[in-house]
What we know:
CATH architecture of chain A: 3-Layer(aba) Sandwich
CATH superfamily of chain A: Thiamin diphosphate (ThDP)-binding fold, Pyr/PP domains
Number of strands of chain B: 14
Bound molecules: thiamine diphosphate, magnesium ion
Number of strands of chain A: 7
Distance between the termini of chain B: 45 Å
CATH class of chain A: Alpha Beta
Structural class of chain B: alpha/beta
Number of helices of chain A: 10
Structural class of chain A: alpha/beta
CATH superfamily of the largest domain in chain B: Thiamin diphosphate (ThDP)-binding fold, Pyr/PP domains
Radius of gyration of chain B: 19 Å
Helix content of chain B: 25-40%
Largest sheet of chain B: 5 strands, mixed
Number of domains of chain B: 2
Largest sheet of chain A: 5 strands, parallel
Shape of chain A: globular
Oligomer: heterodimer
Largest interface: A-B, 50 and 55 residues
Number of domains of chain A: 1
Strand order of the largest sheet of chain B: 9-11-10-13-14
Strand order of the largest sheet of chain A: 1-2-3-7-6
CATH class of the largest domain in chain B: Alpha Beta
Order of helices and strands of chain A: HHEHHHEHEEEEHEHHH
Amino acid sequence: MAEEQETQFSFPAKYRLTGEMEGCTDERKLELFERLLKTREFDARMRKLFRQGRFEGTFYSQIGQEACDVVIAYQLDKQDFVGPSHRDLGASTGKGVPLKYLTAQVYNRVDSPDGGRYTACHYWHPEFWVMNPSTSIVMNWIAATGAAFGYKMLKKDNVAVAFCGDGATAHGDFHEACNFAGVHRLPIVYVVQNNLWAESLPVALTTALTDLNHRADAYGFPGVSIDGNDVVETWNTTREALMRARSGAGPTLIEMKTYRWHGHSDIDPADYRSDDEVAHWMERDPIPRYEQYLREHKVLNDDALVEVRMRIEAEIEEAVDFAENSPRPAPDAYQSHVYAEAYPGFEFGDRNPGGANG
Amino acid sequence: MAEITYIDAINRTLHEEMTRDETTFLIGEDTGIYGGVFKATRGLLEEFGPDRIVDSPISESLIAGMTVGAAMVGCRPLPEIQFADFISPAFDQIVQQVARYYWRTRGAFEMPITLRCPYGGGVGGGVFHSQSNEAWFMNTPGLVMVAPGSVRDAAGLLRSAIRSQDPVLYWEHKKLYRSLKDDLPDGDETLTPIGKAEVARTGSHVTAISFGYTYQLCLEAADQLAEDGIEVEVIDLKTLLPLDKSTVIESIAKTGKAVIVHEAPKVGGIGGEIAAILAEECFWELDAPITRVAGYNTSFPAARTMEEHYMPSTAQIAAALKTAVET
Lengths: 358, 327
Ligand SMILES: Cc1ncc(C[n+]2csc(CCOP(=O)(O)OP(=O)(O)O)c2C)c(N)n1
Ligand SMILES: [Mg+2]
């Protein structure tokens, strides 16, 4: 699969987007495009850097699924709560977290929001209310539900958005969270990105359902299934779901059908899937489809695109420099913030009591 | 001054603290309309309403885990697990999320959560209503655990836990609920410090180290042995995590002998951690083997005869203390 194809688009008319984006000015349409493209370019760049061995661990590419995260995150207020999972780069880029914090996170450097102690690639930022995602699948679904409860109890106007994958919907926490949110009509939007695979597990072995929106039927709130690679449909659906949440009408579950182009993580060759399947989905790439839509609506032209690309390129360049120049954390820097309070008996431990360090 | 029970002290403290802080809310099973299966939360729904007193569905993972998001946005959550035995469905959320979130975010988000766990045997409950499963959580940095063994601490530790910025598992012993009474002045605002054990009774011959219900048994055993001229020092641990090492170490430096008592099975119980601390830090002060009087390494039995056999008794504790002194 050519590297090229990730960022150089052709315009497949047969998957043309139609319809209006409700309540979206041309300016915002363009800004949304920039965030989508930025997410794509950033991801592609990180994959390249990983293969060059510039950072340790691995990388969870979101390429192909960007619209599912970015379109809803872009619409949120800063104080709105986001509970992402392990593949939700777009939750951060969509909400406007500066790329330098994301590169620092990928590199586990001191300038990442957690100073390199947590987990590479698990993007978050406290000031942007993107919570630190839990690697334990769908754990954050419950935390985001708790945040929605908190907003309601404290009579704040904010909403929460939670993200998970198709595989995660089999977990008990998925059910406990949705069920509770339904009972209490919490201000939350649940986004399930059905990319057909949970690591190597095909969705048919996760569930007997074809459309995951039906999961919502069990919780007494609306569920919809949409093409998560169609920015216009995704915009209109998420916008309505957010309005429902804000107006006190309760939760919505949105299944977004999408596809991850690459392996589960960048050490996974993904040889469990067919080339035809991958090709089928690459033709439905959300970004060129949206680009074409914007051109047709005279929101974007060649000159504007060049400008957008230059801005993105510069920010990525700066962010990579920032991370590469950010120091590695001191070896014992993880030994702070175990507890918020002081306890006389707490100590980090001593491997040589009575000895030189004792 | 009115004499009140251990469970009334809990109930009263919940009323007071929820009045004091409007960001608190309580969530648990049958905690609202029913006032709790033990009535620990009675009257709260009437006073604070359904927004703050939440009758949860049977979803322990949700009860424990939703507190993280709620705490992040400014609440002070008071979740309750109906019986500590049912905490296992919530284990993932407690050890991976609640306990670590402050660390994970390098201090960006504090987790002022108090999770109440009614635990312990002696109430004829069988294996799902009797366990002392506190040791399941000992290997979890970031978590605080307290276990009151007196009426005063039932109030004082709960108050401190609720006001703390750390996540606290509060272990309330079911057998003490109505069997223990004490004077607790109205409007008392004593805060029992978290992280501090207390030498509840001084003695020079041997130290009994315990918490919760078995702490009360240790006091009884000490009374009995006093008649034979044996002076037992009794330590009420109060906080199980992080353990107050220095109070225990200082006592052993004085008595040289330690008997550790708890209800949970001996293998992997908290007693093992205390014994290890003593072996590491006061080996040269010890002049008898460390003894543990603990639950047997089986599941907790139902029939009264078996239950009585399973629970550590005052006589067994007294015997162990006496053996240590005579060594
Ligand atoms: C509780 C838990 N079990 C297993 C894993 C290992 N794991 C990480 S991601 C993943 C697959 C998730 O699939 P899905 O929810 O569809 O999300 P996707 O990776 O496709 O975005 C698995 C099994 C985990 N992180 N947490
Ligand atoms: Mg998936």
